[in-house]
Amino acid sequence: MTITLDTARTIIAAARAHAASAGFKPMTFVVIDAGGHVLAVEREDGSSNKRFEVAFGKAHGAVSLGMGSRALMERAEQQPYFIAAVTSAVGGSLIPVPGGVLIKDAGGTLLGALGVTGDTSDNDEAAAVAGIEAAGLTAQP
Prior knowledge:
The radius of gyration is 13 Å and the shape is globular. The protein contains 5 helices and 5 strands, in the order αββαααββαβ. The two termini are 20 Å apart. α1 crosses α5 and α3 packs across α4. It has a single domain, classed as Haem-degrading domain (Beta-Lactamase), CATH 3.30.450.150. A hairpin with a 5-residue loop joins β3 and β4. It is of the alpha+beta class. The longest helix has 18 residues.
């Protein structure tokens, strides 16, 4: 199974709705598939410059290492040289802070990831989880 464009759009719409209802700052959302290919992107009005790269780095890092970016942050705290080396190996697209959430189906198969940025990392992650779950999929922060 893969993520369709319609599913990616549903995930982003639900993540945006969660962020708006919670009063989060303007955000940027990037959905990628399990191969790291961009499926959908939305940048809200007022979201700052270069937020695409940050959201993509959160999602791409999660898919690259098979763990959400919160887990990557914990790994970076324990093994900073490893995370620095992997960041270089993946072309710099790895942001080890919350907001990059793996997307899995009900059977646990990796479908891709959602990267969110614009507010605090915890709020970015909350919006991502809400969007993924609203689409009937499993979020792994």
